[in-house]
Design a protein that fits this description.
Blueprint: H1 2-20, H2 27-45, H3 49-68, H4 84-112, H5 118-141
């Protein structure tokens, strides 16, 4: 009887672990997500239909480049067993990731310059950031991990770096896109 209970518990743990793995989006789902992002960008940047026709292929290539960037492995920075070398390596990996994101953003701004007005060009990064934030909020609302009030907080109750990106300020370009998936 004990063997049956142990086997059942192991099987249940395996099934729960497999269910907890993030599922890969189908091609159709990815296309739907992209179309939703594009519509949000059109609204935030106030793009004309003509601008949108030129914007879409550039924005699609931007999204593909962002997805290709390897995200750094998460390290428990609060762990008491964390060594200085591990912390240093984790921070370097995060900086390399941020540099890669910035390189892609610089590249797209050059491509968007002939398509967008100066005002739209200035607002692009903050609009993209706001789109990413709305996706994160949507994931949290569907039961993803989140905080009680939906905001990340650092010590002292201040908003974290990621939440400082509100997208409503046209000069707010200090954020990076959120990880996908």
């Amino acid at each position: 009887m004990k063997k049956l209970t142990v086997i059942t518990m192991l099987l249940a743990a395996f099934v729960m672990g497999a269910a907890a793995q993030p599922r890969e989006l189908s091609k159709e789902d990815k296309e739907n997500v992209f179309n939703g992002k594009a519509k949000m960008m059109q609204k935030r940047l106030e793009l004309t239909d003509e601008q949108m026709k030129e914007f879409l292929p550039v924005y699609k290539s931007y999204q593909e480049e962002i997805e290709k960037i390897e995200r750094p492995k998460k390290v428990n920075l609060k762990s008491e067993t964390l060594t200085s070398d591990q912390a240093y390596d984790a921070m370097l990996a995060k900086l390399r990731f941020n540099e890669a994101i910035l390189a892609v953003q610089k590249n797209i701004l050059g491509k968007l310059k002939p398509i967008l007005t100066p005002k739209q060009l200035v607002r692009f990064i903050s609009a993209e950031c706001a789109v990413q934030k709305s996706i994160r909020d949507h994931k949290k609302a569907r039961g993803g991990k989140g905080f009680k009030d939906g905001k990340r907080r650092d010590r002292g109750g201040k908003m974290s770096f990621r939440d400082r990106c509100d997208g409503d300020r046209p000069d707010s370009i200090s954020c990076r896109p959120a990880p996908q998936g």
